[in-house]
């Protein structure tokens, strides 16, 4: 999509977001609603201005949103999977897993190096968060053991 | 005198010194890794500082900031890859010096110049900051409201390439700042029945997402599988003679002034200070043609300029609550999480804390000479042998752990992730993120100020404009918003006249 097309979509999205916020704010009593109402209308106006400006004089040049779609997709999917696994496996197990899986998924083919780096990193995380700062981190199903 | 003793006692305590030293080392390490930047590092650090003493937390912020601004020079000089955006100008002469076999000398000049620029900047913060705070002591709610609006408008208009998108980002930030219980009436807003939203969107969760995830995705896109070879990072020995140091004094003085001036201006950053300092050094040189071909004065100007921006950007942040750049916005965030409201009152209610932080900015500038010395630089250069793909999951884990420990909620991890993905896409669409953060920080203050002003005036909105100072700031804010429109209009007229 061209920069012009992207900016039109962005402007319309923000105008919609602003209008939705203003609509929601109308339900709040008194001054509690006035401030977000004004902001919502302001955002809608600026969004419309952006869409109109792009429609009128936007640059018709390609602007890629992602340079390497495969790498971005892998990182986002593995990252989301990691967050989903944290409550199940616990922080340390899920973190060790992502530290091994993500480099491999991005093409890193030196398993011993990756394993040593992941182990060293996890020791540092454990020392800092559990040893030094004494922060309780979820342990997932390991807590049953 | 009593205050000075108190400040010295707290800043030179074991915890504070350890925090400054450790964070300075970490800062140089982060700056030396291309792809990582001080904003990201401080955003990752903030969640960990919740339970710390404020001065220890701020000492760490100061150390990381000053350290990473020097660290950015290491890959800029050795590989022509700026470790931070502010080190771009350092590559111009730093890398040609490396090609001539003078890498160690260039790094030494960068180290001294960074320390001198940072020290000058900290001294400016210590002198100008309290004066500005005293001048604004008599501000009422109307003035505070307009100061918040001025800060929003300046960051919105001056940061990024597109003023309209900057203003949209600012309004979005202000709107996000209204999520949660209304402080004055207790009415929940935009919470959609979710109890975790009642306390509003957590600033640090959003900050970590917005500023740490986009660089992580960018690192993954590069998919660096090898890192640098040891041979590429071999450094010789170098000594700077007194004659050479004396020759750099005018450059250091000029660059310090430029960096401080740029730092005070909201919206301008270290990269602008470095470019302006570099240009000024080139203009003042008797041999301008040697710039870009390995002139040590070029390295000195760029590094001194970008470090002179550091503490100066805290002047409007601490005195007015308006951050000069994103790091200053993060410092405001650090103050807020410790229950301290930035602005003129901060200087009067917590003089020991503000004085202590200013002293920490000074000490961490000088610490660069210690942690950025020849031996340390050799060690830090080695981190560039680590393949970039290994850093991707490590930063992801640090983000997740840091965010989780704030409230102990898994939902925060998803908020952080969503904010990060949105930030990544918005940056690609040339949508600046700094105004969003500033809106989140200044939004509650702006709303409370305007509502208090209207309560005092019994609903008379003209009160916001009829007080002399508030009227001046309001006109300045309006001028700032209209300025890009006027420029566009002028450009169009000139183009029409040419045709």
Written as H for each helix and E for each strand, in order along the chain, the element string of chain A is: HHHHH
**Between the first and last Cα atoms of chain A, what is the distance in angstroms?**
53 Å
Question: Can you give the mean pLDDT of chain A?
Answer: 89
- Please compute the radius of gyration of chain B using only Cα atoms: 23 Å
Helical segment count of chain B: 23
Query: How do the strands line up in the largest sheet of chain B?
Result: 1-2
Strand content of the residues of chain A, in percent?
under 5%
Which percent bin holds the helix content of chain B?
over 70%
Organism (chain B): Pararhodobacter marinus
Transmembrane segments (chain B): 12-33, 39-65, 112-132, 144-160, 166-184, 196-220, 257-278, 317-337, 357-376, 388-407, 413-443, 464-486
Pfam family, one (chain B): TctA
Protein name (chain B): C4-dicarboxylate ABC transporter permease
Task: Please describe what this structure looks like.
- The complex is a heterodimer of chains A (145) and B (499).
- Chain A is mainly alpha-helical.
- Chain A contains 5 helices and no strands.
- Chain A has helices spanning 3-25, 30-57, 69-89, 91-105, 111-132.
- In chain A, helix 1 runs antiparallel to helix 2 (30-57), helix 3 (69-89) runs antiparallel to helix 4 and helix 4 packs antiparallel against helix 5 (111-132).
- The mean pLDDT of chain A is 89.
- Chain B is mostly helical and 499 residues long.
- Chain B has a two-stranded antiparallel sheet.
- The longest helix of chain B has 33 residues, at 103-135.
- The model of chain B has no long low-confidence stretch (mean pLDDT 84).
- Chains A and B meet through helix 1, helix 2, helix 3, helix 4 and helix 5 of A and helix 9, helix 10, helix 19, helix 20 and helix 21 of B.
- Chain B: Residues 18-438 form the DUF112 domain.
- Chain B: This is C4-dicarboxylate ABC transporter permease.
- Chain B: It holds the Pfam family TctA.
- Chain B: Keywords: Membrane, Transmembrane, Transmembrane helix.
